[in-house]
Please model this.
Amino acid sequence: MLTLYDDPISGNGYKARLILRLTGQAFRVVALDIMKSQTRTPEFLAINPNGKIPALVFEDGRALSESNAILFHFAEGTDYLPADPFARAQVMQWMFWEQYNHEPNIATSRFLIQHRELTDEVKATLEAKKAPGEAALGLMESRLASADFLVDSGFSIADISLYAYTHVAEEGGFSLEPYPAIRAWIKRVEFVPGFMAMGMA
Amino acid sequence: MLTLYDDPISGNGYKARLILRLTGQAFRVVALDIMKSQTRTPEFLAINPNGKIPALVFEDGRALSESNAILFHFAEGTDYLPADPFARAQVMQWMFWEQYNHEPNIATSRFLIQHRELTDEVKATLEAKKAPGEAALGLMESRLASADFLVDSGFSIADISLYAYTHVAEEGGFSLEPYPAIRAWIKRVEFVPGFMAMGMA
Model:
């Protein structure tokens, strides 16, 4: 059976849980507490030298980390990662964009607000993430104003990757009020068969 | 013929040029000057709404951006992206890690040093990127101390993705002196058949 090392507060962990559920994998969860540095123990660093959840361990002991790589691995051969070469490349385009332009602004702001003391330094960091975070949401809005999902082929792991932190963007200080197309897309994702909300395991 | 929108100063553009050369694609380059905001014109934003090079336009007008998505697209079906499912997932793991842990520290430091005035604010940003940049190099060093390439299957787009800014890390203020395994890997990458150096088109 697969073992997922995860922390319930993590949107990146949620991405992994969701694709495992959607593709019908049997897995058990080992809950680690990021806030107590449980991802920095020698035992966990042997699984993921980068010291981050989610990390997935296969029955034979091999380990895989990076939420988007886990999405990729389990979506292969399913409709969540289309077969058409250009559609696949577009899925990857959104997922790499997520890691560089979306996650460091929106997910990180949420983490700071929820788990750090709001010192002047943290406030300055949040302020610096405001414009690039809004730019990321603006880019999603323009795509979704004329499309149901991020890639024309339909609901894919690009949507899972970006849903994870977009639907809780307000917890990071980003109002979704100016983004009606994003709000409609969030509803569409939540009606995908087999969908499971972030709080669920 | 393919059209690559690129800027010679960009390591991300180099990733695209290198995979296009390695896989024998015919392409022309349109050189844009990032420093003159030529990636922010309405014409270019119609190609990549994210306003960044590299962006690739196919003969039928479809466009693809994100350097790692371009690597993925052209490597598919070649040895640069192995067929084994777990090896593929590991290639993706390194490439997503590159975008989140390596590029924002090492590539961004290089950009700031080469193209920005060293104000106190820029110096503080560089200082903040020091520890995570060294951590990224340290993680590569431990992998490469016992392996020829990042993934066991051999040279892949994970190596291209990480070579692009690692081999010029010193231009970003990161000495490679403490990383002998990285230095040996750089040489191995440069001996891969068909390799082309960053300054070349």
Chain A touches chain B at residues 49-50, 58, 62, 64-70, 72-73, 76, 85-86, 88-90, 92-93, 95-97, 99-101, 103-104, 139, 142-143 (CB under 8 Å). The helical segments of chain A are 11-22, 42-47, 67-75, 85-115, 120-144, 157-166, 180-190. The domain at 85-190 of chain A is CATH 1.20.1050.10 (Glutathione S-transferase Yfyf (Class Pi); Chain A, domain 2).
